[in-house]
Write a structure and sequence with these properties.
The protein has 5 helices and 7 strands, in the order αβββββββαααα. With 208 residues, it is an alpha+beta fold. The chain has 2 domains: 118 residues, PH-domain like (Roll), CATH 2.30.29; 63 residues, no CATH class. The chain has a 7-stranded antiparallel β-sheet with strand order 4-3-2-1-7-6-5. The chain binds zinc ion. The site of zinc ion has 8 residues, from loops.
């Protein structure tokens, strides 16, 4: 088990950064999965939503009040455990939290919810859409080179590929640009991209 202080620190971090999370659940014979963000984090309950879907149409509430005796555990992705994410590679996930919930009455086992940082997955999806020129179109937050310049090694030489943070920043910049273009030409069918899976608010489910 992980300490609840550690768990809530991570949950708050995910929420404040609007981190894309993969959630899977298995509760009394019902299971499923989706990608979204934490909308609300409190010691009594967690709200999980999807930016592209209005909250009145989709909201997943995880009751973690102490009377339900939730058990938290950070799962090591290298463990040989039953994989929670069908059709996905473990490498697509970062920090992974397992929440065991207690059932009511005689039902000892309530269910299990997994929340996993899906950054790597979103990055892979985004990178597919980027050209090398686009990847270098922003200043690198890691080595500090200006837009258009190649990333540098600590030793001063040139890197063969941009730093990961720069790819992410470039993907965000391209996404923001696409978004403003989309709103100007909304009659055009938007290009299917990582947006839907990564929960971009501008993406509609019909895009894929
Ligand atoms: Zn760099």
């Amino acid at each position: 088990m992980s300490s609840s202080a550690e768990v809530f620190a991570q949950l708050s971090k995910w929420k404040s950064g609007s981190a894309k999370l993969y959630m899977s659940w298995a509760i009394s014979g019902v299971s499923g999965w989706c990608i979204g963000v934490l909308k609300h984090v409190a010691s009594s309950e967690l709200h999980f939503g999807i930016d592209a879907i209005d909250r009145k149409d989709f909201l997943f509430v995880i009751n973690v009040h102490s009377t339900y005796q939730p058990q938290f555990r950070f799962v090591d992705n290298r463990e040989a455990w039953q994989f929670f994410a069908p059709q996905r590679e473990r490498s697509e996930f970062g920090k992974t939290l397992e929440i065991m919930l207690r059932g009511s009455g005689a039902d000892k086992y309530g269910g299990k919810v997994i929340l996993a940082s899906a950054m790597a997955f979103c990055l892979e999806m985004k990178k597919k859409d980027l050209t090398p020129k686009q990847m270098s179109s922003v200043r690198c937050p890691t080595c500090g080179v200006a837009a258009g310049m190649r990333c540098e090694l600590y030793s001063g030489g040139l890197r063969s590929a941009p730093h990961v943070d720069r790819k992410l920043a470039a993907a965000d910049a391209v996404e923001a640009k696409n978004k403003s273009q989309r709103s100007r030409t909304s009659y055009l069918r938007p290009k299917a991209s990582a947006d839907v899976l990564c929960g971009n608010p501008s993406a509609k489910h019909g895009d894929v």
